[in-house]
């Protein structure tokens, strides 16, 4: 079955950084390998985590901003490389309503370079205005709209043995995120900027902590750090509202999923 684990592939933003790639999370469970968001640097981090792109079974996009989709074109182009293609099984690409149109527009620019053989890639659109669900052997995914842009959704991955991972994507404070993270074993939450630099559509450490506390999560993982976070006391600000287990993500930070 291999290692069941969650790995932060990218803990940063669109701002270039030697320490942090753009947003991405890898979930490995049995034969499933899910990549949540696909910012620039993800494919290199996948290799460093011991996973080839040919092994990815699901791509899940929280929304279509460049720091979350920036390597999608490269992923598709690399998938056409013959040596890689011969080892591929079909994979699913999941996102909110508008994902299919997004891909059609990319094809309008790149044409055959990102068009895969029929049956290799399946695009699934989820509800951007309410809850939605997907399930397959051993896994169930719940999505809820987030407060960022109209097509933003967060994900909760529920495993057959009871373990759960909630992923905020980009969002401001909202009740849907509290519902999504309720009782989660691992809550991966964006924390774009320090409290004093709060901007609309993003969270800060104390707000992320408040959500985690209200949701009663088992462990909070803060990620999606802009460079301003590097010189701030992110942990201290989060502790104003949250007392539970806390991790400040780095690229390749990893967590085991209990068997």
Question: Brief description of this entry?
Answer:
The protein has 8 helices and 14 strands. With 259 residues, it is an alpha/beta fold.
CATH homology group: Ribonuclease Z/Hydroxyacylglutathione hydrolase-like
**Unreliable residue runs:** none
Strand order of the largest sheet: 6-5-4-3-2-1-14
CATH architecture: 4-Layer Sandwich
Question: Major sheet: size, sense and barrel closure?
Answer: 7 strands, mixed
- The count of helical stretches stands at 8
The CATH class turns out to be Alpha Beta
Radius of gyration: 17 Å
Shape: globular
The class by helix and strand makeup works out as: alpha/beta
In total, the number of domains comes to: 1
Which series of helices and strands comes N to C?
EEEHEHHHEHEEEEEHEHEHEE
The proportion of residues forming helix, as a percent range, comes to 10-25%
Write down how many β-strands occur, each being a DSSP E stretch of 2 or more residues: 14
Q: What's the CATH topology name? A: Metallo-beta-lactamase, Chain A
Cα separation of the termini: 10 Å
């Amino acid at each position: 079955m291999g290692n069941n684990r969650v790995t932060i592939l990218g803990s940063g933003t669109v701002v270039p950084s030697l320490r942090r790639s753009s947003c991405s999370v890898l979930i490995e469970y049995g034969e499933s390998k899910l990549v949540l968001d696909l910012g620039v640097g993800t494919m290199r981090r996948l290799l460093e985590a011991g996973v080839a792109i040919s092994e990815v079974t699901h791509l899940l996009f929280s929304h279509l901003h460049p720091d979350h989709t920036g390597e999608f074109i490269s992923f598709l182009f690399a998938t056409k490389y013959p040596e890689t293609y011969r080892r591929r099984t079909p994979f699913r690409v999941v996102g909110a309503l508008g994902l299919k149109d997004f891909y059609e527009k990319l094809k309008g620019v790149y044409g055959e370079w990102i068009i895969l053989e029929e049956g290799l890639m399946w695009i699934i659109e989820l509800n951007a205005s309410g809850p939605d669900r997907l399930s397959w052997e051993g896994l169930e995914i719940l999505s809820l709209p987030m407060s960022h842009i109209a097509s933003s959704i967060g994900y909760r991955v529920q495993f057959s043995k009871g373990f759960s991972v909630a992923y905020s994507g980009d969002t401001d404070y909202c009740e849907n995120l509290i519902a999504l993270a309720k009782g989660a074993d691992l809550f991966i939450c964006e924390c774009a900027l320090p409290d004093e630099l709060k901007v609309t559509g993003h969270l800060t450490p104390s707000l992320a902590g408040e959500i985690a506390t209200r949701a009663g999560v088992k462990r909070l993982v803060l990620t999606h750090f802009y460079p301003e976070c590097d010189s701030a006391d992110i942990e201290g600000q989060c502790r104003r509202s949250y007392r539970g287990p806390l991790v400040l993500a780095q690229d390749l930070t990893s967590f085991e999923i209990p068997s």
